[in-house]
């Protein structure tokens, strides 16, 4: 991956978060504390502002730096959770990963996010999107199919009862709403998948 | 100072500062104490950077006990401890306890010269699970 490829990924991620910030906030207002869109936008704009510095690094270091920036700037629990996802990918990926290496690294990164959030798939969180994305990766699906799997997985959080995070305080009342973190994860997966496919 | 330090992390700076006031009323200056609250941008939330700063401020060789309010404060505190890294991270514990009662009880225990383990155990006794 070249520096310009990585810059394109950052722009795609920051663009989709900015474009959907209000939607993410509305989802979070329904069953959370209503700051997810703004928090994620702040974090990804902070990453965008340092695109050149990040893109100049080897891929593992670039991903770690993006993760650290998210941890420091998002301001909610999403900061450590999304930050851990990127930091773990940076830790696990080689400098020039192939599909197999990406699949292995993605699985490790999911484990790191699960540990950070003391959560597991099925609890109405971002993990409910990450896990099917991993499975699609492992099954050799195309970028478009992986993005579709992510969207479908985010939709599938609607009937779930939240067991982690602020939404869990609502118990049964969390049923019927999409998880904001699952939605933002699906948005990021689609943005990255389309940026890579369009290359 | 050799007493265990106490760090208070709330989503609200008002809650964090108020809790710190209550701790000070109990233990005066005998316990290293720091608080942080808010997302660093004027809103409710917690900031890893601010938590790391509070840990530095309340640092004691005897260790630091962190009291948190809601989930994000816990997740961000654990992240802050990890980013501080070894060897200090071994001496920092995020307590599972109600923030106000936990901070006051933990600080009172610390002011008597208790170990980090004892301070944390006192806070944990307040937790139903």
Automatic annotation (TrEMBL), chain B:
InterPro entries, alphabetized: DhaM (IPR039643), DhaM_N (IPR012844), PTS_EIIA_man-typ (IPR004701), PTS_EIIA_man-typ_sf (IPR036662)
Domain PTS EIIA type-4: 3-129
Catalytic activity: dihydroxyacetone + phosphoenolpyruvate = dihydroxyacetone phosphate + pyruvate
Keywords: Kinase, Transferase
Gene Ontology biological process terms in this record: glycerol catabolic process; phosphoenolpyruvate-dependent sugar phosphotransferase system
One GO CC term on file: membrane
EC code: 2.7.1.121
Alphabetical list of Gene3D superfamilies matching this protein: Phosphotransferase system, mannose-type IIA component (3.40.50.510)
GO molecular function, one term: phosphoenolpyruvate-glycerone phosphotransferase activity
Protein's job: Component of the dihydroxyacetone kinase complex, which is responsible for the phosphoenolpyruvate (PEP)-dependent phosphorylation of dihydroxyacetone. DhaM serves as the phosphoryl donor. Is phosphorylated by phosphoenolpyruvate in an EI- and HPr-dependent reaction, and a phosphorelay system on histidine residues finally leads to phosphoryl transfer to DhaL and dihydroxyacetone.
Subunit structure comment from the entry: Homodimer. The dihydroxyacetone kinase complex is composed of a homodimer of DhaM, a homodimer of DhaK and the subunit DhaL.
Protein name, entry field: phosphoenolpyruvate--glycerone phosphotransferase
Organism of provenance: Mesorhizobium atlanticum
């Amino acid at each position: 991956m070249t520096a310009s490829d990585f810059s394109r990924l950052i722009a795609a991620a920051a663009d989709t978060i900015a474009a959907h910030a209000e939607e993410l906030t509305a989802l979070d207002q329904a069953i959370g504390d209503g700051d997810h869109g703004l928090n994620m936008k702040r974090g990804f704009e902070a990453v965008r502002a340092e695109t050149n510095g990040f893109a100049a690094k080897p891929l593992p270091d670039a991903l770690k730096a993006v993760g650290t920036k998210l941890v420091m700037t998002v301001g909610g629990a999403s900061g450590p959770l999304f930050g851990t996802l990127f930091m773990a990918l940076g830790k696990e990926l080689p400098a020039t990963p192939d599909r197999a290496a990406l699949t292995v690294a993605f699985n490790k990164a999911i484990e790191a996010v699960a540990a950070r959030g003391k959560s597991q798939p099925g609890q109405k969180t971002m993990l409910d999107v990450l896990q099917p994305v991993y499975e699609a990766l492992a099954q050799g699906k195309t970028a478009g199919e992986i993005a579709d799997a992510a969207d479908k997985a985010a939709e599938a959080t609607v009937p779930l009862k939240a067991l982690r995070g602020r939404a869990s305080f609502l118990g049964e009342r969390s049923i019927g709403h999409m998880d904001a973190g699952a939605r933002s994860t699906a948005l990021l997966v689609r943005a990255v998948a389309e940026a890579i496919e369009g290359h | 100072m050799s007493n265990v330090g106490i760090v208070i992390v709330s989503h609200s700076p008002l809650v964090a500062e108020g809790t710190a006031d209550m701790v000070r009323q109990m233990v005066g200056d005998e316990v290293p104490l720091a608080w942080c609250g808010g997302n660093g941008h004027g809103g409710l939330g917690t900031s890893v950077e601010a938590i790391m700063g509070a840990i530095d401020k309340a640092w004691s060789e005897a260790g630091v006990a962190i009291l948190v309010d809601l989930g994000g404060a816990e997740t961000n505190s654990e992240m802050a401890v990890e980013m501080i890294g070894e060897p200090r991270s071994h001496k920092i514990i995020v307590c599972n306890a109600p923030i106000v009662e936990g901070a006051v009880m933990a600080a009172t225990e610390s002011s008597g010269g208790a170990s980090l383990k004892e301070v944390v155990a006192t806070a944990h006794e307040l937790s139903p699970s």
